[in-house]
Amino acid sequence: MSDPVDPLQATRAWVESFVVGREVCPFAGREVARDSVRYVNIEAAEPEVALMRLMEECWHLDGHPEDETTLLVLTGCLDDFDDYLDHLALAETLMESQGYEGIYQLASFHPDYQFEGEDADSPRNYTNRAPWPMWHLIREAGLERALAHYPDPENIPERNAASMQALGTERLAASLTALRGTR
């Protein structure tokens, strides 16, 4: 029996090999090189614990401007995609009620991510599929600066969809499965 995969190591590998390596996010490479991406594992059986940890991470970012972004890796809860989406909505509402709207943006990733209107096996879904459920806190000001210097940012989703289509579902699924290991 093999050792279980470390969720943070798998997430770092996913960021480096997929997000940066395939330029899914053209801004991630700079932050990885600057070591300004924070990785936090939230081991929680209850989603409410994850919501509290999300707030704690907002407070951490408030006091640590050197951390541009945080990936909150959710282990132990929110494995079901529909439950994940429900709690993502709660997380966004919580951030807004705590005054974080416009300060931090919350991006979402899940092993079973499916865009509305897409087939479950569509390669496009892999732009938001990750080894574990994740909430990605991004500083709005940093994102705005990056977008200001990037030509044609509106084309990023279409470019990514074409890239995922070229790779194909089988290859993308195998890559994600390898990162998850013995999940």
Automatic annotation (TrEMBL):
The lineage of its organism: Bacteria, Pseudomonadati, Pseudomonadota, Gammaproteobacteria, Oceanospirillales. This is DUF1415 domain-containing protein. InterPro entries: DUF1415. Pfam families: DUF1415. It comes from the Bacteria.
